[in-house]
Specification:
By secondary structure, the protein is mostly helical. The chain has one domain. Helices cover 68% and strands 0% of the residues. It has six helices and no strands. The chain is elongated.
């Protein structure tokens, strides 16, 4: 049911109705879909915030490396990244860990 909803495929939903799925089960699947969408939006917003913290107002003539993004990061910005650690890409996490240590609570 959930995957049929996430695919937005009416052709998959119609046969499911014939299997006897209750309104309560359909409502539960719809609620799960809504929660999933909200969670992914929150993660995207947090990732964008992390990138803004890393880039700041700096401009680069070429795409910077992760090390270059962390160079000159103020203690305040490093603290902000600690709060956003879970949304950092793996290379950014590795650079964070190398410089500041892995956060205990993620």
């Amino acid at each position: 049911m959930f995957s049929a909803l996430t695919d937005l495929n009416p052709a998959r939903l119609t046969p499911l109705a014939a299997t006897g799925i209750t309104d309560a089960k359909r409502k539960q699947a719809e609620d799960l879909l809504a929660a999933s969408i909200l969670a992914s939006q929150d993660q995207r917003e947090r990732w964008l915030t992390a990138m803004q913290v890393l880039i700041g107002d700096r401009q680069f003539s070429e795409p910077p490396s992760w090390a270059e993004l962390f160079d000159g990061l103020s203690p305040e910005r490093a603290s902000q990244l600690r709060e956003l650690y879970d949304v950092l890409e793996e290379p950014a996490r590795a650079e964070y860990d190398r410089r500041y240590g892995r956060p205990e609570v993620i």
